[in-house]
Amino acid sequence: MSAIRILVDADACPVKEEIYKVAFRHAVPVTVVANQPIRIPKHELIDRVTVSDGYDAADDYVADQASPHSIVVTADILLAERCLKKDATVIAPNGKPFTKDSIGSAIAARALMADLRAGASDVSGGPAPYQKSDRSRFLSALDETLVRLKRETA
Q1: Are 62 and 79 in contact (CB under 8 A)?
Q2: Strands of the chain, DSSP E
Q3: Residue 128 gets which letter from DSSP?
Q4: 5 C-beta neighbours (distance < 10 Å), count
Q5: What is the pTM (predicted TM-score) of this model?
Q6: Which of 30, 47, 59, 146 has the greatest number of C-beta atoms within 10 Å?
């Protein structure tokens, strides 16, 4: 049996504190991956990996570590796709899951928005502002996923 763990694409993750709380409750280790040192709680379940500032270094590390018993927390659609190919569970910080069924349309929408931004000066992009409901949805999604994975690996 492989151990369940949470991998966090941490540089811009708005839900790190929530991840720690859920991880402590479920006694599941967390690896926080970033291009620069990020403050983490001093706890045996929390590990920090600081990668080089090379392009996609954090993504490469997370994707390399992903497995069927990993929960990856990221807003990065391309990283989500890489992790899904390794059968990891992937959750966005807003609580919405990335799945093998939904990732293709997410990549297409990302490419479309990039094309629109490149071709028009009045098209702006980026994620919607983070809401309380996003935080609540994330907490619920992470908790449910951990319960499911624990049941599957028992």
Answers
A1: yes
A2: 5-9, 30-34, 46-50, 70-73, 89-91, 97-98
A3: P
A4: 20
A5: 0.85
A6: 30
The gap between the terminal CA atoms of the chain, to the nearest Å, is 8
Q: If you compute the radius of gyration of the chain from its CA atoms, what whole number of angstroms results?
A: 16
Residue type for 30, please? V
* Mean pLDDT taken over the chain: 86
Cβ burial, residue 25 (10 Å; 0-12/13-18/19+): exposed
Q: Which residue has the higher pLDDT, 130 or 79?
A: 79
Collapsing DSSP to helix, strand or coil, 80 comes out as helix
CA atoms within 13 A on the CB side of 150: 12
Q: Which residues contact 53 (CB under 8 A, 6 or more apart)?
A: 35, 36
Distance between CA 69 and CA 137 in Å, rounded? 21
Can you tell me the mean pLDDT for 3-16? 93
How do residues 94-114 score in pLDDT, each as one tens digit?
A: 999 988 777 666 666 655 666
Strand order of the β-sheet with 46-50 is 46-50, 30-34, 5-9, 70-73, 89-91, 97-98
